[in-house]
Amino acid sequence: MRALVVRLDSFGDVLLAGPAVRAVAARCSHVTVLCGPRGADAARMLPGADDVLVWEAPWEGFDPPPVTAADVEGLLDRLRAAACDTALVLTSFHQSPLPTALLLRLAGIPFIGADSVDHPGRLLDVRHRRQEGRHEAEAALDTAAATGFPLPPGDDGRLRVLPPPDTGALTGNGPYVVLHPGASAPARAWSPHRCAEAVALLTDAGHRVVVTGGPQETALTREVAGCLAVDLGGRTTPRTLAGVLHLADAVISANTGPAHLAAAVGTPVVSLFAPVVPAGRWAPYGVPTILLGDQSAPCADTRALTCPVPGHPCLDEVTGQDVLRAVHKLIQERHS
To answer: In whole angstroms, what is the distance from residue 80 CA to residue 104 CA?
Structure first.
């Protein structure tokens, strides 16, 4: 049986779908993952994914593309060529799978399962209803199981990626802690001055610090690293970033893709978590995690991209000392 697993939004979202992809792969001869451009690199790192189709959906992301007949027809052609017998459509709790299911029906996929609040008509063969408050990784696994793809025996359901490369040439010798100062939305980021404060305190406490960031974040990583930390801003691919995170004693990150990548390589996370989305659904999954940030702040559950509260108090009231204590606790627990 050839299967399609759909997760159309970001890098972290696709990583959270990884356990469900493995569940499908355990019962199918071939698994294709359909994802958006922001999630493609994550999809290519997932165990169980044999092929990746990339399509930018006009209902996903911060700046979705226009709807055009040519774009939709192109997708349908690629889906027909994939010749899948079944499809699992994975979405977040606030998203509908039905636009995707309609396209999959038009592409001729005979059996489709998804989690849907809305009545699906003929669009779904399995309409799952998620349990309230389930983590996104668990909700995806629940939907996979309802569609006929339970986790195989021996799979613990944690996030995983393919083995990362050796990144010692990037990080240098000796233990280190990673600080990732960027985030996909300003409301989720810890301020640069707080990040720099943490770097200084960690260094004073005897830790080597490695600062990571994407190609668009080099000014930020340079500011945060200063002359104290190793600045890897713009110098890692997703696969090499996985290697850097894998060898770290701990990772300090906001609620953004690298926090989930750290979880996927088994590294403890100090999670600077703005409550604009619920931590119970989106915190790093399956690894020791210390959650910092006021989860009852006025911005809670607003899904805001820019902080609606002056001073960004939910995160900026977290100090460098708070982070230092959290790092020490995670390292002690890891080596005890």
So the answer is: 9
